[in-house]
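Hello, quick one for you while I still have it in my head. Could you read through the record and tell me how the tokens relate to the sequence? No rush at all, and the record is pasted right below.
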Amino acid sequence: MRNWDVTIFGLPMIVKRPLEGWGGVLRLDWGTRRRLSDGLFLCGEADSGLSLEDVFLKPMDSSFWISLIAVVCLGATGGELLGAEKVRLFVLSGQSNMAGLNPDDTFTPAVRRAFPEDEVIVVHYAEGGTAIRRWWSGWKDDLVPLAEGVNPPPGDLYRTLIDRVNAGIRGKTLESVALIWMQGERDAKSGLSAFYEEALRGLLKQAATDLKRPDLVVVIGRLTDHRKGEKHWDAIREIQEKVAGSSPRWGWVDSDDLNGEKNDLHCTKEGYHQLGQRFASKVIALLSSGDR
């Protein structure tokens, strides 16, 4: 085994791989062709005029492997590494109906099919029975405290969520970030619909700021019809639609037919499968509608 050193436009490249088993053709846009029997240099389109039309590699046996030791063309030339994956983050959070959803059943497979060349990261963290004050750090307990039990500080669950997100994306550059949110039952039952719009908008702004994504894509799961007809329940459903409709990057999904014939609080097993599919379909459509 030995190293292959390549210098193009003064940029040193080092590639290490076995001597046997590989042949490679590097063709640049000005017609220069070079056959590399001992190494491979990959660089995409660059502002300097360097661009890669194609790279052809044919394995001669099953023992081949390539390890890139250093790639320094990025940034210096404005180029991209050929074949580098885009990274897409999907954050699913909220209370019990989000907690009951298993993203691996339908959601994650669907987004991976939609973006087969990209790395898909899914972070799922939800807690049943939680009001939005547990997720939005801007909630003022001195104004509207929760009645039951000892009140944890506002946004305590959100901080746990962000810690998990940061752990999952450490060292990665994200192409897109989407938040899928399903929550509101506790606030409706507690009669806090008057404060819900401010809190929901505050939460979404908080997430966009912390994730450094002003282009944050948002999908809201609207409350089911479990208590449809009750004042605070209906108000929060309307707020969720209103907020979701206030940005072209945001949307909502209907869950009224996912909680069984008796309109239970929680979705049925099949309902959760359908909910995951609906979340995926909506977020895929939003991501595909722009340059995200």
About this structure: The chain has two domains: 2-70, 87-288. The first helix runs from residue 96 to 99. Residues 1-83 have pLDDT under 50 and may be disordered.
